[in-house]
Amino acid sequence: MTTVTVQGVSKHYGSLTALDGVDLEIGVGVTGLLGPNGAGKSTLLRCLATALGPDSGSIRVRGLDPAVPAQRTEVRRRIGYLPQNPGLYPNFTAYDLLDYVAVLKEVTDTRQRRAEVRRVLDEVELTDRAKTKVRKLSGGMRQRLGLAQALLGDPELLILDEPTVGLDPEQRMLFRALISRIGECRTVLLSTHQTEDVGALCERVVVMSGGRVVFEGSPRELAGVADGQVWLSESPPQGNTAYWRNADGLYRTVGQQPDGAEATRPSIEDGYLMLLGRAAIAEVVR
Amino acid sequence: MPPVSEQSSDADLLRAIAAGQTAALRLLHHRHAGWLRARLRRRCADPDVVDAAIQDTFVAVWKDAQRYEEERADAAAWLWTIAVRRLVSALRGPAHRWLSSLSGELPDVGTTPSAEELVLLGVEHGALGPALDRLSPELRHLIEATALDGLTVREAAKLLGIPEGTAKTRLMRARSRLRELLT
Amino acid sequence: MSEWHLDPELFEQYEQGVLNPSRVMAVEAHMSACATCRGRVPVDITWLTGNWSIVFDNIHAPQAGPVQRLLTRVGLPEHRFRLLTATPALRWSWLIATLSVVVLAVIAASLSAVGETGGASRLFLVLAPVLPVVAVSGAYGSGIDPMHEITGTTPSAGPALVLWRAISVIGAATALAGVAGLLLPGPGWYAAAWLLPALLLCTGTLALATAWSLQAAAAALGGLWLTGVSWVLGVRSEVFIPLVFGPIAQFVYLAAAAAAVAVLIRRRRHFDLGESR
What we know:
- The complex is a heterotrimer.
- Helix content of chain A is 35%, strand content 27%.
- Chain A is α/β, with parallel strands linked by helices.
- Chain A folds into two domains: 216 residues, 3-Layer(aba) Sandwich (Rossmann fold); 63 residues, no CATH class.
- In chain A, a hairpin with a 5-residue loop joins strand 11 and strand 12.
- The radius of gyration of chain A is 21 Å and the shape is globular.
- The two termini of chain A are 40 Å apart.
- The mean pLDDT of chain A is 88.
- Chain B folds into two domains: 107 residues, Rna Polymerase Sigma Factor, Chain: A; 71 residues, Arc Repressor Mutant, subunit A (Orthogonal Bundle).
- In chain B, helix 7 packs across helix 8.
- Chain C folds into two domains: 53 residues, no CATH class; 204 residues, no CATH class.
- Chains B and C meet through helix 2, helix 3, helix 4, helix 5 and helix 6 of B and helix 1, helix 2, helix 3 and helix 4 of C.
């Protein structure tokens, strides 16, 4: 079932084009929005979260149009949003912060609000940190608290902007497990520039570049983009080709077959690199 | 303060609670709420009052855990005296709230009954058993409230709804009657 | 401690209340002493989690203080109270700024309390009406509230939220200035003379914020007040107090404030929320 429909959405900041005619349909499950910095991921998410209005094009969340003030409030009742910089008040305790956001999310009945705060604390496993001030929480815990506030009110659509950024590998694993559990019955749209995130938890992936959608499909299909174009060789390939050494000491090339190289199965990252071309390869190799 | 777990002792949990660890309070609650409930229900038929007394108990423990002294009382016995006092004050209604705040929020550890003492009383398999059964209910209730529940005579009087003086004389009568029955 | 333990059957009889008194006492005495048997007491897990969640709420949820109880009695719902009290807590800086201005005014006034037209008292009367407006404009907004992106995308975001937050901040600032006014030397009515100009500036700012951003509106009206008053002070210094704070002037402030409220109500949908949409 389609939760979000985006049609021809464009957004400009002065002469800079952040979104250039984006068309998308997103349904239940976890969808990853992959792309290099400046691809327009955050701008698109902010438009969907009603933080930003597009210059042209239309957005529908469960058929509701956020451009119409009355429907915008209805959309806001259905979404949970974790911005890239949530700016959670450092002097609030985890409990008080969630209590405050729950008030903003119209959970007005005291008893119901307490139950709701308890529920989300439990869901992100922060129950025992409820009395801790935000500034004393670790980065991973703060990120989980940010997710908890998005979960308040049990929204149908969760919009998470770079939720795994700045987490160490262990926290990242925990966080992925948490998000995939949440995504079982909701629509989750998250942005990332990590292909591992996509492989680990997304059912669908949307690749953006230069404000446009350049790919839409499953992670397997994304890997398939590079089918027959990924090569391994024992010596560095000649010519003007981007390559890097993998853990086995072999040279991996995406694109033209170098001399003496053998074809190998592409990964999600290979597909992503094929799509984005040299600019992206340069960024990843760097 | 090391992290607490299912294996932590009650005293460790109480120290962690005093340091503000909610996890420790949860473990303590899950460990003790069950038997406290079973025991309180023998004294009060209203399940809501019993539940509220248990909740009050753990909220009080959260606020005042640093008052617990490991050397002077067993944690379970200490929890029980808090719980039974909470129940007493709830039963006597808001007008009798002073009872629970008689000496601050929590009872002094010195007044909690020592478990060893109770075992030495021999209620489990001594001659005391039959003797207690033969005691009249009103005398037995006083022995129960003071020796078993660790209430003061004054609190026992409130629990049983009798004047303090009456409670004192009854307790004396109960003790001499028990001595009679045991010899 | 003892070899004897409670068996499930005995415990069941205990719970059903069919044991004779000495057995009941034996079971209880043993439970006090034996952690193993305490642990064996069967517990309904649903009951246990339910009971724990109330304990959890009690130790975490903000407890109602006397102020909240008073406001509840006059009909302010608990969730509104949370919103009002959370707002000033968001930004202590403006509170400290307001407080220091007020304290400075009082100190200056006390030091130079020679005549009733003392310069410091005048200074206070001129500055006090601006304080709540400054407080409002500095209390939140896209550049100031770090959680703005989250707040701005909740269903509560909108004119009502802006108003509630404004009321909370104006209330706090007015109370502070009020206390300072009472501490000032000079005729008693000085302590209240600034209230109507302050009301006008606040309502005017909010009304103007339906067209401009709140910060711009506050700056415009606050600036207008300060320039106007300084100008009067410059040309008609001898009749400054009666002219700016006299009965006629006060009536004009009240009427203008009423007009501003009318504009505010009519145009409430156009509130600038500081959003970039």
